[in-house]
Amino acid sequence: MGTYISSSKKLSIVVLLLGILIILMTLLPNTVRRGELLMEFKETPKYKLMEVVFISYVRGYSLKEAYEEADLVILGEIVYVEHHVFSIERLCRGRILTLTRPYTYYRIRIIKIFKGEPISSIREEPTSDIIIVGHMGGTVEGILLIVPEDPPMKEGEFVILFLRGPIEKGDYVKYPRIEYRHMGVFGRFKVVDGEIYSAMYSLPEEIGGIPCRSRAESILKQFEGYDKVNGITVKEFLKLVRD
Predict the structure, then answer these.
(1) Rounded CA gap, 183 and 195, in Å?
(2) Please, are residues 151 and 52 in contact by the beta-carbon 8 Å criterion?
(3) The CA-based dihedral angle spanning residues 78, 224, 166, 54, taken in that order and rounded to the nearest 10 degrees
(4) Is 206:143 a contact under the CB 8 Å cutoff?
(5) Taking the model in full, what pTM does it have?
């Protein structure tokens, strides 16, 4: 696709993508589909189109509940970012449709384990210092997909993540048996100069004109604990999640 696209061609692309997304919504796993899923397109200077996924969460967690639900909780550094696009074929009204969904995969070097025992990203054995975390969102053919309250993380960031897994199988799993997923906005925390911040304080104000931090704040303020994670130490953080 060229750098210049006529208005009519842009409109045709948007209509086609909307049609595909409507079909995709009917095929999403129940854990997502039971919530209200709204999508809209916006243009940004960096990307030809932006696909924004707004999720109305069926289940929310207080900070302590999220910690208890996690299989693995780690402090780590994102050392490598990999982009991947899944192409899944589905039968719909007698026709085979190919659905695409971008994911981002992080290699994370573990600095400290607070809960659980990790599986290696290289061999299926514990005690490795590198794990893989999959994250919905990324780019495909110039289209950026983000969840505003859970946008992509960056290489070099230090994070505390509440993780589930490893995941055994699924349509959107690239690394079965060693791949983890963080618990969305409820399971990501940024560490800066040894101080910890929840998503309601650490996310960028916006990405491509889409508010991120305010979206995270509107979700997390409903649940106990996240408002207290604003420049606190690891010791203070562990007291909040464990006591």
Answers:
(1) 21
(2) no
(3) -80
(4) no
(5) 0.74
- All domains in the chain, ordered by first residue: 7-242 (2.40.50.120)
114-152 pLDDT tens trace: 999 997 655 555 556 899 999 988 877 777 888 999 999
- Strand 158-167 and strand 206-207: the pairing is unpaired
Is residue 202 within 8 A of residue 189, CB to CB? The reply is yes
What are 62-98's pLDDT values in tens digits?
Answer: 999 999 999 999 999 999 999 888 777 777 777 887 7
The 10 Å CB-count burial string (b at 16+, else e) for 167-204 is beeeeebebeebbbbbbbbbbbbbbeeeebbbbbbbbe
